[in-house]
Hints:
Elements: H1 2-15, H2 18-28, H3 33-43, H4 49-59, E1 67-69, H5 76-87, E2 93-95, E3 113-116, H6 123-130, H7 139-144, E4 151-154, H8 162-180, H9 193-205, H10 209-278, E5 282-284, E6 287-289, H11 292-307, E7 317-319, E8 322-324, H12 327-338, E9 346-348, H13 357-374, E10 378-384, E11 387-396, E12 399-407, E13 412-416, H14 427-444, H15 447-468, H16 475-494, E14 503-506, H17 516-529, E15 536-539, H18 547-555, E16 563-568, E17 571-575, H19 582-603, H20 607-617, H21 620-631, H22 634-650, H23 657-675
Parallel strand pairs: 1-2, 3-4, 15-17
Antiparallel strand pairs: 5-6, 7-8, 9-10, 10-11, 11-12, 12-13, 14-16, 16-17
Helix pairs in contact: 1-2, 9-10, 10-15, 10-16, 11-12, 13-14, 19-20, 19-23, 20-23, 21-23, 22-23
Amino acid sequence: MYDALVARKEEALRAGDEDLYDSVQEELDKFNPAEVQAVREAQSGGWNAYEQIKRNLMARGLPENEIRFIQEANTDDQKQQLFDAVKAGEVRVLLGSTERMGAGTNVQDRLVALHHVDVNWKPSDIEQREGRIVRQGNLLLEKYGEEFEVELNAYATERTYDAKMWSLNEAKGRFINGLRSYNGEREVEIDDSESENMAEMAAMASGDPRMLERVQLDAEVKKLEMSRRAFNRRRFTLEDAIQRAERNVATLPAKIEGAKQDQKRVNDATDEAEQELASRRVDIEGDEFSSEFEAQRKARELIDAQKGDNARAKFTLMVNGRPYTSVDAVEKAIRGSLGDSAAFPFVFADGERFNRRAVAASAVAARMNDMLSEGKEEEVIGTYYGLQFHAFVSRDGGEVNGTLFVQGESVKEARDVRTSEAGQFSGESVQSSMATLAWDILGAVNVPSMQRQLSDAQETLPVLKEQLGKPFAQAEEYEKKKARLSELTAELAAEGKDNAPTALMRGEAGDGSISRDEAERIINEFRKQYPAAPMTMLVERFEDLPEQARREAEMQGGNASNTFGAMHQGAMYLIRNNLADREALETAIFHELVGHFGLRNLLGPDFVRKANQLYAQLGGVDGLRRLAEKEGFTAQFNDYAKNLVGAYQKNPEVFTEEFVKMLLTEEAFAHIAQNRPTIATHIKAL
Length: 686
């Protein structure tokens, strides 16, 4: 295609068609000559994937005329003819790249399979590929009915990066699809209506109307809680909008004045660059030209005249007073004199101007590389659109960083510059950053846009403040139902409705014991602060625990010296003799109240099943171990897990697999709670 464009450019020159010349040159500018040369070298190497696949298919009996490459079609008409052949079934295998055979390729009529021969970096590329076949309009569905399915095949080569690339695409795609389905909520609701119905049925079967009331209240409070959180998020959004509006009202007037000054500099620099562009000339054999097309056309006429009928004859052409003897050299000399077709308002620090962006970018890159060698981190390179143009470079170990920065009265725009593997700046990377900066600058001096922002801020600020002042409409209902739910939860817990095995807090007891008076005072403080907390019992010794609690504790490795507290049938037991001081007592309360009772209260009456779901989502016992390692209680968790497994093996009727998973999950959160006392401030939410 590149060679065909070069040939069309030659034809345009000879035919005097300036419009065709410009359009072809625009297409040629999209190609990287180095890449074109690399492709030619690869093709001349004797092997390419397309031909190999074609040979393999032919060896299996597929006729050559039924295998086509998308690259064979270089015009819209040729593409349509090829697509029609595929849709008709005349072409059975069509090979191509994502770029050439992505969007716009509608050949799904008789497709049965798509094969990913390689893998791209972006999930969108995979979607584009698969979108060619996973779409409506397949005639084979009508022929074979609902049983018909298309195939999607992907291939990976052993000991290559293919598997990692597919994994990266999967991770990116999962994240992107999550964003696509995002509805503004901070959490995703799982529709579990069947479980809710089962919970209500179990509550009715208990014979206690309070159980049914609790299940129904729990569902209602959760919905109200979601509404309240959504309301609070809207408030946060309003607060942010008010802050932005107030900031705009306060700062935009000064920014607008600064932008006006910067805009004048940008306009002056652009006008100066336009004048310089209009003054460019190239001399060809004594005739001056300002149009590249006319200059190239004149040069070709003179070259053809010297060659006559001998296409291989030598020639000499004077350009700007210098002799040139090759077509490429003449073309480069003309383009070098006339430069880019658009004005370029950049001036180097020494006053040098450039008529070609690529040359200017190479000069900037060279100066940035020199700064690295000199150990200089910042320098004013020149002016860009009339504004100061700075370069920043740094070296951190083996990593090299570079930034281009434009500064005016109001404009402050920066863009990073990529480096090569050798840690050097290139003209291509600088040119890319400067092109982006140009858009940034023009956007930053858009005074009308800033004036509209100021006007909008002034108009919307009173409206936003009025909306912010509105209360949550269901606040009273929410507080009443939440209070009733807490009341019911406490009643049912005190009556032993929680039939989960006893949960322990174990460790090494310190010297001495906290006094009973101080312990009761601390417990009463917690009761006042957290009225929904479970019934709390202070016992002297391990032996004073209820018989069932003590027996289940012993199954888990608990004894008279290593057990600080226990959660049993909805009540919290604290063993005074093993609690040395206030810190030890508060740690035990945090452990039991947040980790065990709090999590159960959060998950509701179906907490065993939901705790098992949480266990699975965290990665099972290995995931909990990683959590323990991160939070610094690995030894305690492993010891607890070991004893729970022992209890399960000794008495599987009590310590079922579901209860073991639940207790392991609770224990992980309990340790986080005791290690982070500030979690106590969130117990009300639990």
